[in-house]
Amino acid sequence: MFRASLLRPLAFSGLFGALAAAPALAQRPSPPQPGLLRVCADPDNLPFSNQKGEGFENKIAELIASEWKSKLEYIWYPVRRGYFRILNGMYCDLIIQAPGGLDMAGTTNPYYRSGYVLVTRADSKLADIKSLADPRLKKARIGITLLPSDEQLPPTQALSHYGVVGNLRGYSAMYNEEDRPEDVINGVAKGEVDVAIVWGPLAGYFATRSPVRLRIQPLPDRDSVADLPFRYNIGMAVRRREGALRDSLQGVIERKGPEIQRILKDYGVPVFPIEQEKEEDDEPKATVPSSTPADTARTSRR
To answer: With 50 as the cut, is the pLDDT of residue 266 above it?
Structure first.
């Protein structure tokens, strides 16, 4: 899903209060307010966030608000294209996950790096598969997250370079009460597919909660044949013009780094050493999923 780079820091006064919640469209845009931290978040998108405060983005937001002694308020908006317009429209002040170097926002240094993984049943004959180059994938039933556009996720694009095209089963990224983000993981557990290719944080969370023992195998940092990246740096985002807020946020990330990493570990997020990403103009364009926008989205049911 992206790329990375208040007026003064949020005031250190005020008490950390109970969670407040409001839909984005019900709010009026406003600049940052002392003692208040407004966070954009998806109301139903585990393991990232939900209205019950059960996602790892929720836990990280609570940590930041506590450090700043600010009241935490969520501005709920489904993760999809256009998500960062809510931030830039001044409905909220912070997005917990953003691709490193994202042009449309001011991003912190990355606080974790994750990537795509292969998910199989632990008792499967394919449990030892390690890359998309494995010839067994040409005959395996493969579950993928299917985006509602011609642009697809990097591993899906890469499969065609290995001649794997006719044995894919798409699980919709446009989810609702019936189509859920975890369906692709459940598809492996139920034997609907032999292997799934999934964004790491999503796979790590739901695979560890599966009643069937599943195996997670990280894909390499980059596919040498398709020349597409499979791992991405993730930071936090504020508005580009609010450098003081970004700097203050960076200070929290550095001071509370061990606690943030424990949160990620508790949610089963696969993490890798943070690396400098290419900035050349010829870098292949790819969509990064996570809760980072443009990967999962919600359809409204009328």
So the answer is: yes
Query: What residues contact 219, with CB distance under 8 A and at least 6 apart?
Result: 115, 116, 117, 118, 131, 132, 155, 197, 230, 231
Residue 28: pLDDT band with limits 50, 70, 90: confident
- Show the tokens assigned to 96: 């917990």
Instruction: Please identify which residue in the block is written with the tokens 């195996």.
Output: 215
Distances (CA, A) of 89 to 17, 27, 34, 228, 245: 25, 11, 19, 32, 16
Residue 183, phi then psi, degrees to nearest 5: -60, -35
**Cβ(12)–Cβ(68) below 8 Å:** yes
The CATH number that domain 114-229 falls under is 3.40.190.10
CA distances from 126 to 139, 145, 154, 165 (A): 11, 20, 21, 18
How many CA atoms are closer than 13 Å to the CA of 148, on its beta-carbon side?
A: 11
pLDDT mean across residues, the chain: 84
CA–CA dist 273, 152 (Å, integer) = 26
Q: From CA 219, how far away is CA 131, in angstroms rounded? A: 6
Superfamily of domain 20-112+232-294 in CATH is Periplasmic binding protein-like II (3.40.190.10)
